[in-house]
Each structure stands twice: as C-alpha cells, then as structure tokens.
Amino acid sequence: MENIIVQKYGGTSLQNTERIKNTAKRIKSYREKGREMVVVVSAMGKTTNNLLDLARTISDSPPKRELDVLLSTGEQISIALLSIALNEIGIDTLSLTGAQCGIKTNGLHSNARIEDIDDARILQELKRGRVVIVAGFQGINEKGDITTLGRGGSDTTAVALAAALKAEKCEIYTDVDGVYSTDPRIVPKAVKLNAIRYDEMLEMARLGAQILHPRSVELAKNHQVPLEVRSSLNFNSGTIILGEITMEDIRISGITSEKNIARISIARVPDKPGIAYRLFKCLSENEISIDMILQNLNHENANDISFTTPTEALGEALPIVEKFAGEIEAQEIIVKENVCKISLVGTGILGHGEVAAAFFETLSNLGINIEMISTSETKISCLIDGKDADNAVRTLHRIFFEQN
Amino acid sequence: MENIIVQKYGGTSLQNTERIKNTAKRIKSYREKGREMVVVVSAMGKTTNNLLDLARTISDSPPKRELDVLLSTGEQISIALLSIALNEIGIDTLSLTGAQCGIKTNGLHSNARIEDIDDARILQELKRGRVVIVAGFQGINEKGDITTLGRGGSDTTAVALAAALKAEKCEIYTDVDGVYSTDPRIVPKAVKLNAIRYDEMLEMARLGAQILHPRSVELAKNHQVPLEVRSSLNFNSGTIILGEITMEDIRISGITSEKNIARISIARVPDKPGIAYRLFKCLSENEISIDMILQNLNHENANDISFTTPTEALGEALPIVEKFAGEIEAQEIIVKENVCKISLVGTGILGHGEVAAAFFETLSNLGINIEMISTSETKISCLIDGKDADNAVRTLHRIFFEQN
User: Fold this and answer.
1) CB within 8 A of B322, min separation 6: which ones?
2) Beta-strand runs (E) in B130-184
3) A274 φ, ψ to 5°?
4) pTM, whole model, 2 decimals?
5) Where is pLDDT greater, at B256 or B352?
6) Pairing status of strand A302-310 against strand A251-270
7) Residue where a domain terminates, one of B175, B194, B225
8) A14 occurs within a structural domain
9) B159: closest CA among B170, B173, B174, B147?
C-alpha cells in the first residue's frame, strides 16, 4: 500500500515507561495525519544486556537457540508496553512478535537472515484501522523456533517490513537528528546532511558512523526502500537515504573515523605464490574480520604483509598469525594496537585526483604519518596513529566543509 | 508413554540464577534414573508482578491481549535460563513456549482455558533423548495470539500436559513438603498427609490451602492424572493425590481456614418467590464470587439473606446490593468484613453425625459464635469472627489430629 509508513524506535526511545508514553504520543501525531502505520521496536534500554548477564551467570557458552528464546523477550515486552500506551491515548493497536508477523528466517541462531515475510496478518490489521506494533530483531525458522537477527537486527526488521509492504518510507528514530558530515562530538561544526545515497551511507555506516547498521542500508538499497534517519526527541527533519540524488559531480558526504583497530604486520614473508591467500583463508575460517591489507616487497625474495582487524579480535588473531608465521619461516610479527582509520566519503571522489590530493596534503601538513591507504568508488581511507585521529578529523572537516 | 514424568517448578524454585542452577541439578538427578521428562516452569520470583507494575504505570486498564503478550515473557525467560543451566551440566534440552508446544486455548485473554494440546513436537524431542522445558501459564488461541491461563496457570499446564502425554505422574514442586492437615504456620504440630483423594484436595484447595489451584486438581481428577506435591528444597516424599485410597470409613484429611472474607446481610427482604435468585444472578453477572449463602425467615413475610464474598470484591458488590435492596424495599444492609471460614475436610464426614457434633462442640467450648454453616460430601464449614480463627484451628487440630 502506497500510504504505509514503517517507523522504528530504538532502545533509548523506550528506555522507561515515561519515554514509552512520549513515543506513543509521537506515533499518535503521525497516525492522526491519516497514515497506515507499522511500528518496529527494540528492547527497552539495557534489557538485552541484562538478559545476557543473567545467562552468563549460568553458563559461559549458553546454547544459541536458548539465548534467542531469552533475548527475544526484550522486544516482546516493548511491543506490549507500547501497545498499552497507545491504547491509553485512544489509538487502536495490535502487537505482534516476530513469529506472529510471519518473519521467516534461516536457522542461524543469534545471527539469522530474513528469508521471507508473510504479511497477511499485518495487512489485515492495517485494514481494520489498527497501528501494528512489531517486535524487531526476531523471527522464526522453519522448525518454528525463535531466531534473532544479530547486530542491527531491529533496523533490518523495519526495512524488510517496509520492502514487503511496499511502504512509502521507513523512518528510523534514534537519539541524533540525522547523518552528519562527521562526528559532532569531535567537530562541533559538523553539518547535518539532508540527503545521502545508499552507497555513501553504506561507507559511512561501515566506517563507524554508528547510526544505521550496514546490513539494513544494504537491504534498503536492494529493495529501493527510502530510509529516513530522524530524532525521536524533536520534530526536525532528518537525513533521507535514497538511490539517486541530483547534484554536481563531486560530492563529499562526510568524514568518519574508526578507532579500536589493530595493525598486525608479518615481516619478511618469503615471496612465494599463495602465501597471502593461505594466511587470510586461515583467518577467515576462524571468523576473524580483516579490513585493510597491504603487501609490499622490501627485500629480495621477501615481502611485508600488514592487515588490520578490530582490537577486540586481536586475542584470537595473534595465535593464528604466530602459528602461520612459524610455518612459513617469517622473521617477525609487529603489532600496533592504537591505530585509526580516517575516511573521506562521497561520490566521484576516485575520479577527481584533487580530492585525494587535498586529503593527503592535509594529513601531511599536520605531520601525520599515513600507514596504509585504501580506496573505493565512494571513499578514501587512511590508517593513522590513534592519537592523531581527532585532530585529523577536525582539520579535514574545516578543509572540506567549512570553506567560504 | 508410560515412562514420562511431568514436573512443574514454581517461581520460588527459579527465584534467581543460583536457584535455577539447583533446580537444574535436581532435574538431572531424576533424568539420570532414565525417565523421559517434561518440565513446566513459572516465571522467576516476582517477575510477573514487576511486569504488571510496568504496565500499570502506563495504564489503569491495559488491554488484556497486550497484558498476555507482556506477562508471557516471564515464563519464556525461565525456560531459556533453565535450559541453559541444564545444558551447562550436560543434559540435552529443548525449551518451548506455550505456542511452540501446541497448547491451544480459547480466546479469553488473561483467563484462557486449554482446549487442546498438539503434543507432536514434545514427543519428537523426547524421542531424541531431550528433556523438554515448557513455559507454563500460557498458550495460543486460534488467531495465533498469545493467551495466559490466569491463576494456577502453570499447575494447569503441567496437569494438562501430563494428561495429553499419558504421563505416569505429574509432580508439582513447591516450597512446602506436601499437603498438611492444617496450616503449619498456625499449628506447628500439623501432620503431612501421605495421600489424599482428588475430592478432598479440591476442598482443601478451595478452602485456602494455597498449594494447588482447584482448577489443576479438577483437571487431574477428570483425566485421572496422579499428582504429587513435593518440596524443591529437599528430597522428602510429598503428598500423592489420586482417585481412590483404601482406608477406613471416616477419614479426616485436614482443617483449613480462609480469611479475608466479608459477610453481607440484607435484612427484611420481602418473602416473594425469585428474589434471592435475582440478587445472585445480578452479582454473578458482575463476576462477583459468592460462597456461602444463608436465608432465614425471621419475621412474617420477610427474610434475612446473608452471603459471603472475598473482601476484595466488597467494593464492587456493595453498590449492586444497595441498588437491589432499594428496588425490593429491603430494610437494611449489614456488612461484616473480618470473618473467617473454618473447615473440616475429609471423606464420609456427612454420614457421621459425631464428627460434625465434635466440630460444633469444640467451637462452642471456645465461646466462638458460628455465624453460618455449610456442608458438602467432603467438608463442614463454619463462618466465625476473624479474630477467633487461629485459636479455632489450633484447638480443632488438637481434637481431630493430636489425640492418643
């Protein structure tokens, strides 16, 4: 239906019953504009963490199926309370768990993928004039078991529902006004973007702008669902994320910094074919996430291989790298923990050498050493020392956003 | 299957993660005897009340459908945590919500009745050697909506599953060792009963021995499910409740006292046919629970009608009684709040006048005035002043249980 809006409210919009009542009033104000509404909610505030803590006092490695049964209660509590709050102010509602609203997933507990949505019940209730309140983050597999969707799960539920219902828009309510040119906590002059393309948002999301999980942006892109990121604390317009935006050739969307990265270098790796492949295959089999990779020939018949990984994965990654280095008789392993990836995100950056040049020049003028570089259609990233990160972001923002 | 045992653990057995781990060890000890086991659980400790409080900060009259969505999370948390605890000590389990284990109810939210159980999934998992953990108190109606069973709900789930699975026995674990001849908090010499008939247990349950809800006893009686009430804090044998027990003719099972009762009397009701009927029809239409009723002719063409109701229902009952008294031009309404029903429960009491005589004589010797009397196949009850209740129970217990 053309007229359907899917709204998603996160844990901070539902932190306590006072916030839930405020969220209900907000939903009422939209409802009174005559929209058909589906509202997706997360668990209240810290509920998910509290439930996890309970499980962990019993077991260090609880079965994932049972964790899903446990964690899915968080959103179920939210749908019931929000539904009660809406009824209290005269809005007719119906709450549905993931299973009840036909969100069918694969069987991967704690990290399931949505395979299909049977929207019959939702459409039926919308036709009866009800606001439908859906528990985010959860679904049901073919056995009828409860699954959860992992990180960014509630956003993913909202976008998937918007796609299935062919909704006009999917609005993600959060505690910030939208997507900014960079982190406003680092750069107070950061600019709110009115619109951004899916691909740019994907780079922004992947690079540490913690507003939307990349997974939900990808899903929105694949189904061409217009997304809007808005604040649940005011009525300002937010940032719209869509397919195409008419504008000049080069467009810089933002500057991101991603901290808590570790760089691991293996020095003097014998220069034989397939060695890098074997290393990264080994790491990926152990589900260790790898981001930037650099291989440079610096001695006769020997390379240095460097790569980055989240600091939290270092404990798992190092023993694997050490074992591998031993097998191939590499000379040395060098670990640097506190590094940071600074990225310039935008459209057409790669085709315009002057943008990259200005980026590198700015860092150079600050005396910041660039350790690694990677580029894509929509971004340039540099790895630098973590202590220089905030200064770099502030200066880059001044150069790219605060001129004239 | 002959070999199936259904066990039910209440909120105190699951009060915190420490208790949950202890309950898991207990289940393991039974499991290791080779039993097929289905375990029904309540919500942890005060979870249900905490959830209700949350709802009440939002609304004075939350929709019952949404309350059921909310409250059912309590048992869902319990099944997940108990399942995790059992896996941690090497017992293979599977948790199921009411919906997942096919507990189909009618549509009466907050007080649903079980209509059918589709036990296919449970039997399949038992065959795979798993202990099946079921959320008590909840089911699903024909629309797929979550329902809850109201008071005594988890006991009812356990008995219904035992009946459907043709289990050997249904064990109800609680914080007392079994059913006692009277309340051990009032009479320290109270005797634990080894066995009691369904009908006697029904009287005991209805009369305020708060161990088993009458509804679950009725269900057990209808399906001839042997019930055992046991403590989850020790391994003592409990009280078995069954159909027939071989024993001598007269058997006194226990003495119960039910407090928080109000007596309402309407004085000088015109003696016309159908007046009492109209009064009680009117009260039952407003779902006001009525227990004892006394109608006595004391003036020419005028009766006094007295009845008892729980004190908590007084606020609702009184306006109805006042309106009715006005319509029929009765003279006066007299309310007495703090009355108590003392009952002697047993088999064959009614046929043996000497038991009733001893009962009345004991109260008379204590100088206690009997305000109303009612009898059935398995009990004699007297309404007395609340202040005399404990003294009456102690003395009656001495007369009937502590002789020779």
Assistant:
1) B333
2) 131-135, 138-140, 146-148, 169-174
3) 90, -5
4) 0.80
5) B256
6) antiparallel
7) B175
8) yes
9) B170
Classify residue B56: in a domain, yes or no. yes
What pairing do the DSSP bridges indicate for beta strands B36-41 and B131-135?
parallel
Indicate if B159 and B14 belong to the same structural domain: yes
Instruction: DSSP letter for B359, please.
Output: H
Count how many domains chain A has.
2
Are A169 and A263 contained in the same domain?
Answer: no
A1 vs B261, more confident: B261
What's the confidence (pLDDT) of residue B109? 94
CA distances from A4 to A104, A163, A164 (A): 21, 11, 11
Environment class of A186 (CB within 10 Å of its CB; exposed 0-12, middle 13-18, buried 19+):
middle
pLDDT at A404: 52
- The verdict on residue A138 lying in a domain is yes
Mark whether A268 and A166 lie in a shared domain: no
Query: What is the pLDDT of chain B when averaged over all its residues?
Result: 89
Contact B81 A17 (CB under 8 A): no
pLDDT at residue B20 greater than cutoff 90: yes
CATH (domain of A109): 3.40.1160.10
Number of other residues whose CB lies within 10 A of the CB of residue B288:
19
Give the dihedral sign, CA B216/B217/B220/B222: negative
Residue ranges making up the domain that contains B40? 4-175
Q: What is the dihedral of CA A115, A118, A119, A121, to 10 degrees?
A: -140
Given an 8 Å threshold on Cβ–Cβ distance, is B83 in contact with A67? no
- In A28-57, the residues whose Cβ lies within 8 Å of chain B are 51, 54-55, 57
CA distance B358 to chain A (A): 55
Site from A58, A61, A76, A148 to mutate, B interface, most B CB atoms within 10 angstroms: A58
Q: What is the CATH number of the domain that holds A300?
A: 3.30.2130.10
Nearest to B17 among A20, A58, A72 (CB): A58
DSSP lists the bridge partners of residue B295 as B305
Exposed/middle/buried for B140, CB within 10 Å: 0-12, 13-18, 19+?
buried
Q: Is A119 helix (H, G, I), strand (E, B) or coil?
A: coil
The rounded distance, in Å, linking the Cα atoms of B147 and B132 is 21
Contact B85, B13 (CB under 8 A): no
Residues in chain A where the model's pLDDT stays below 50: 247-248
Let me know if residue A228 belongs to a domain.
no
Instruction: Using pLDDT thresholds of 50, 70 and 90, give the confidence band for residue B123.
Output: very high
Calpha distance B372→B370 (Å, rounded):
6
Q: Quick one: pLDDT at residue B384?
A: 94
Q: Which of A174, A208, A235 is the last residue of a domain?
A: A174
Are B25 and B160 members of one domain?
A: yes
Q: How confident is the model at residue B209 (pLDDT cuts 50, 70, 90)?
A: low
CA distances B249 to A83, A130, A179, B177, B252, Å, are 58, 63, 83, 27, 10
Q: Please, which residues 50-109 of chain A have a Cβ atom closer than 8 Å to chain B? A: 51, 54-55, 57-59, 62-63, 65-67, 69-70, 72-73, 76-77, 79-81, 83-85, 87-88, 93-95, 97, 99-100
pLDDT in tens, B152-168: 899 999 999 999 999 99
In terms of domains, do B34 and B133 share one? yes
